[in-house]
Each structure stands twice: as C-alpha cells, then as structure tokens.
Amino acid sequence: MGEGCRRRALPLPGRGRILAGEPKVSPEHEVRQVRELTTALMRRVPDSYEPFYGARGIAIDLQTARAQHAAYADALRAAGVRVHLLDADEAWPDCVFVEDPAVVVPPRALIGRLAAHREGEPPPVQAALREWHETVALDGGARLEGGDVLHVEDTTYVGLTARTNARGADALRDFLAPAGRRVVAVRVPNYLHLKTAASYLGNGTLLAVPDFAGVKAFQVDQVIHTDAAEPVAANCLRVNGDLLVVAGNPRTEPRLRAFAERHGVRVVPLEISEFQKGDGSLTCLSTLW
C-alpha cells in the first residue's frame, strides 16, 4: 500500500484503539514518513481477461477495462509516480493484477507464489523488477501474495488467508529483517486478501470494513470504518499526497474526504468495475516503490 508524502508517523498506542476525530500529536512524535513512492509497475490487460470470466458467467467489457486501467495509470502519474507498463501474457488472464506476484521494499523484491490458476504470473514480473531490485524467491512450501501485505509505518502486517500461509508470513519476516521492519501476522477468514478488508491511509489511520476482527492487531491511532453496505471501499491507495478511492461509495466517501481535508490530501475517485468483477481492487493493479 502506498505511503503518504510527508505524512506523520504517530506513536504506537494500545492495540487498535478506535478514536473519533483528529488525534492529538505532540511535536516530539513528528517523525519521517516511511517512504515516498516514485515508481510503479503495472501490467496490461490481456485479451483473455474477458473470455476467462465470461466462461464463468461474469460479463467483462474489455474496452471499459482498458479505459479504467489507463485512468488508473494517469492517476499514479498525477501523484508523481513514474509508471512502467509490462506486457500482458494471454496464457494468464489475471496477470493484470500485478500486485500479487511481488513485495517490493527497495533495494530488494520478494517474489510470491500464487494460486495454481496464476502460477505463471511471477516470472515476467521478477524479470522486470531485476532492472531495479535484487529479487528473492520463496521456499517450496511458502505461499504469499502481495494483496496480503500491508505496510503501516515501520510495521508490516501480513494476512493469513487462502492465498498466504504461515510459511509465507515467515518468509516475509525474514525478507524484511534487514530493513528493520516488524512483521505481524493477522488472520483474515472472510476476505480474499488482507487489503480487501483494510487499507492504511497514512497519518496513523487505518480504513477497515466493520466486521474485520483483525483490526485489533493494528497499532494505529485511528480506525475509520467503511459503511457496512460498502465493503469494496475498504481498499484505497495512498500515493504521496493523493488518496485513490473506489468510486461509487457515497456513504463511505465523506469519511475519506474528512480524513483528507484534515491532512491536506487529495481524494481521487476511480472507476474499477471491470476489475472488481475479477475480485480485483485498486491496490491489485500496481506494484509500487
């Protein structure tokens, strides 16, 4: 998840307190941001994306999907990020969801191991990332997808889901040890990925669906809940001074705009309907560093 430009890293309170309003922070607790995002890797939408889901009774409009993909790339550029587009692989219809094959913490990238129907996606991503990073492979029994990895200041949370197992979490912990990052595993029983249930907005604030019990594991100053009828709004992407949000969530968006106004952040709503049909979300469409 993207970290905010010049955001505040807040002191670590008791576990997962849910507070109303703006947290009070004394000057001695004003510290550097984790990192400013400068680069994104995205992957083009394959022609096979439409028939793959069509065979499963899900109607995808490929032209709309590509227009939404292009608008997303433009939003990243507007936030100050240079976007690199990797060609699609028609053999792997979900390859557009480029977040999952890797976790990037410069100067290294941990290459994930995906579900069987996506197992061919990581190699081209790994090859592309080698232009910037040393790449590290998982061991044979580990499974890890980038959608289960959420950076919150100096801590990284990893979801234990149907896509990421305990060995994958352990591998992530080993990978991040040289960077001095603490890793906390969180069980996510009812959602595809951790970032389906929660996102870090920056400024000590977590966004989460109301029924996500794992929120108690997060050491943050404030938790904002989505409206119960709008769980898809829980996946947001903070990119420097911008907050990319899923368009069409009128009950949750005012909460996000209130957060943004307090912290000088610009809210950028994006349509991603054709990717939501494939169980995708905002963060799925890029790998950022």
Which keywords apply here?
L-arginine/glycine Amidinotransferase, Chain A; 7 helices; 3-stranded mixed sheet; alpha/beta; 15 strands; single chain
Walk me through the structure.
It is a single chain. This protein is α/β, with parallel strands linked by helices and 289 residues long. The chain has a single domain (35-288), classed as L-arginine/glycine Amidinotransferase, Chain A (5-stranded Propeller). The chain is built from seven helices and 15 strands. A three-stranded mixed sheet has the order 2-1-15, with helices on both faces. Strand 6 (149-152) and strand 7 (155-160) form a beta hairpin. The relative contact order is 0.19.
Number of domains: 1
Along the chain, the helix and strand elements come as EHHEEEHEEEHEHEEEEEHEHE
Describe the sheet with the most strands. 3 strands, mixed
Which strand order does the major sheet show?
Answer: 2-1-15
Instruction: State the CATH architecture.
Output: 5-stranded Propeller
Which class of secondary structure composition applies to the elements? alpha/beta
Q: How many alpha or pi helices?
A: 7
Morphology call: globular
In short:
This protein has 289 residues and is of the alpha/beta class.
